[in-house]
Amino acid sequence: MAESLTTEVLRDAIRRLSAQAESCADELSAIDGALGDGDLGVTLVRGMRSVAEQADDLPPDLGAALLQCAKALVSLSGSTYGTLLATGVMSAAKAVRGRTEVGWRETADLLGGALEAMQRRGKAELGDKTVLDAVAATVEALRLAETPDAMLPAARQAVREAIAEFRDRAARQGRARMFGENSVGKDDPGMVAWLRLLEGLA
């Protein structure tokens, strides 16, 4: 893997994430249909397409590059999920403004800051069975990984375990909470989408 996060690495990640969104769109929309509007897959595809269209024009400054990505997500997503992702990316953009390189070990803190920003924006708590629980599991896994190469595999495994842990809980946020006890036994669409994005970075 690359020694650190740069705009060039970010470009490659965006292309991978965009392709992954296309490949799992139907699955995510089906899962979302059980607890929501059924449009999560389409939302993710549109958002990632918008970001991918910006990839070649991203500047070397990582903060500026991430801010451009966040704006692209906001412009087309029109959903709570897209807004939360954009909020997290914007938080990371502010944290690395003016830098052209970020070490992999710093990514846990960047994602931790993004998680806090997403919580504030979404007015949700950890444990509510939302994407925030998947992000929190990712942050913890990144911090505990012994080497940079182990970070992404550890994060994917942690999110899989989080999805399994929350499966038999009732949703307490968003449209899914209206399903009450009927949400028990069903995976949260946002958590699954987060896992699929991590898998796309493999």
Low-confidence stretches: none
Q: What is the number of helices?
A: 8
Number of spatially distinct domains: 1
Number of strands: 2
Beta-strand fraction estimate: under 5%
Instruction: Provide the spatial order of strands within the biggest beta sheet.
Output: 1-2
Please describe the structure with a list of short key phrases separated by commas or semicolons.
single chain; 202 residues; mainly alpha; Serine Threonine Protein Phosphatase 5, Tetratricopeptide repeat; two-stranded antiparallel sheet; 2 strands; 68% helix; globular
Structure explained in plain terms:
It is built from 8 helices and 2 strands. It is 68% helix and 2% strand. A two-stranded antiparallel sheet has the order 1-2. α4 (80-95) crosses α5 (107-122) and α6 (131-144) packs across α8 (189-200). With 202 residues, it is mainly α. It has one domain: Serine Threonine Protein Phosphatase 5, Tetratricopeptide repeat (Alpha Horseshoe), CATH 1.25.40.340. It has helices spanning 7-35, 40-54, 62-77, 80-95, 107-122, 131-144, 148-167, 189-200; strands at 4-5, 102-103.
What are the SSEs and their pairings?
Elements: E1 4-5, H1 7-35, H2 40-54, H3 62-77, H4 80-95, E2 102-103, H5 107-122, H6 131-144, H7 148-167, H8 189-200
Antiparallel strand pairs: 1-2
Helix pairs in contact: 1-2, 1-8, 2-3, 3-4, 4-5, 5-6, 6-7, 6-8, 7-8
